[in-house]
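FORM 12-B: Structure-to-Sequence Request
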């Protein structure tokens, strides 16, 4: 019996020692965790807790929406009605549930924060104080809302044409507005400056010694983006981006939806449907570029200058479109403080919003009034600079043109045929005046 009692006592002592060791180990672990993850001094700052009552969205923006819609539009780039429509569109993707600890940030507040950031380029710290939302929370909100905007708008407002009828409508609008028939868009590309990505080396380092991603776009006659390629690293120029993008493959290998060549007004010769670009691209049967300076001499000088002028009228669409997005979404005026993937999401959201505002009749009038755009006076031959040129910033840079383009004989002849058409049955009364050649 004594032996049993002794074994029992030894076992109890062993358990007690283990309990003490476990308790000591637990205390040490808790202390280490406290050092590594110190407790917040407060769970939520008092000024943030007053967000619903005093935050910018529920005070200033609410007042402007009812008292001064014009000022509201300047703040968020759209009318109160369009804002609410957009909030309802993204609600299923960004709405959060309330908890017993705190109320969630509403969809409207999330959209206000994002639109204000895109419209002004304000830092997240500045938005933190305006909207009374934590800075790290704002960072997540902007990325999430930009992705949601692209998701809900791309199918309608950034949709790639897929049928004969859609391409023909684009070409008709281009012909009726800019007198360049069988043209299905103006193409251009820009560097979008970003902060140097971590451990990226020289991948995004461009020819201007800056870090960037590339936006290549095709714009229709209504200044809407109908095709975009965003995210290529900044080391590549116009031609390199074009050679790797899906649009080039579509035009050259899978162009079944592009209408077949057809005669231009007043002509019996068939001309293909083409995109216009600048000298940085390679001339082809689908891409028309201007004659270079060395080709503007000799007996064909006038015909080729007229061609360049007529092509420049269409290219003004892409110039105005890029100018508008920089003027209206000022986050593009300087380098984005985002990694390449986030910068791509922000850019796609901006392009969708631009197309939305250019499609809506009232939005178009307020978003891009005539004085904001480059325009020409056909009577005097003067080209008036658009208001967007006054405040461009340096966030969008032209792509580096890669010299030494060698063009095939067939597209060279096609371009000469266009030049002959513009100097013959396709001439417009003011074109000689615009290139300063006496009639």
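FORM 12-B RESPONSE
SEQUENCE OUT:
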């Amino acid at each position: 019996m004594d032996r049993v009692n002794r074994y029992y006592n030894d076992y109890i002592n062993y358990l007690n020692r283990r309990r003490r060791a476990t308790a000591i180990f637990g205390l040490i672990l808790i202390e280490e965790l406290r050092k590594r993850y110190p407790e917040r001094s407060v769970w939520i700052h008092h000024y943030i807790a007053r967000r619903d009552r005093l935050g910018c969205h529920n005070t200033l923006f609410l007042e402007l929406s009812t008292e001064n819609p014009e000022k509201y539009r300047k703040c968020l780039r759209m009318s109160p009605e369009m804002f609410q429509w957009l909030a309802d569109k993204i609600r299923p993707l960004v709405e959060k549930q309330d908890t017993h600890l705190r109320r969630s940030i509403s969809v409207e507040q999330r959209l206000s924060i994002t639109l204000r950031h895109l419209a002004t380029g304000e830092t997240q710290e500045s938005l933190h104080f305006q909207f009374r939302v934590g800075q790290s929370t704002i960072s997540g909100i902007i990325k999430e809302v930009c992705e949601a905007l692209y998701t809900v708008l791309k199918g309608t407002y950034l949709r790639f044409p897929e049928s004969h009828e859609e391409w023909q409508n684009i070409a008709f609008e281009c012909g009726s507005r800019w007198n360049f028939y069988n043209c299905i868009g103006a193409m251009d590309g820009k560097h979008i400056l970003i902060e140097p990505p971590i451990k990226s080396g020289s991948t995004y380092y461009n020819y201007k010694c800056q870090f960037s991603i590339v936006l290549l776009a095709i714009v229709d006659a209504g200044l809407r983006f109908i095709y975009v390629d965003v995210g290529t690293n900044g080391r590549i120029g116009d031609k390199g981006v074009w050679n790797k993008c899906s649009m080039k493959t579509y035009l050259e290998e899978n162009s079944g939806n592009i209408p077949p060549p057809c005669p231009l007004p007043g002509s019996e010769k068939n001309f293909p449907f083409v995109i216009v670009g600048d000298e940085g691209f390679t001339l082809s049967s689908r891409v028309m570029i201007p004659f270079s300076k060395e080709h503007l001499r000799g007996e064909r000088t006038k015909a080729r200058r007229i061609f360049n002028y007529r092509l420049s009228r269409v290219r003004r669409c892409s110039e105005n479109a890029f100018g508008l997005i920089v003027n209206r979404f000022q986050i593009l005026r300087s380098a984005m403080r985002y990694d390449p993937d986030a910068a791509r999401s922000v850019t796609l959201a901006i392009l969708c919003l631009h197309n939305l505002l250019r499609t809506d009749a009232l939005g178009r009038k307020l978003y891009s009034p005539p004085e904001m755009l480059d325009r020409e006076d056909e009577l005097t031959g003067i080209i008036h600079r658009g208001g967007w040129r006054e405040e461009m910033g340096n966030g969008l840079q032209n792509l580096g043109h890669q010299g030494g383009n060698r063009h095939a004989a067939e597209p060279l002849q096609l371009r000469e045929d266009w030049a002959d058409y513009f100097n013959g049955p396709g001439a417009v009364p003011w074109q000689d005046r615009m290139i300063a050649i006496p009639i």
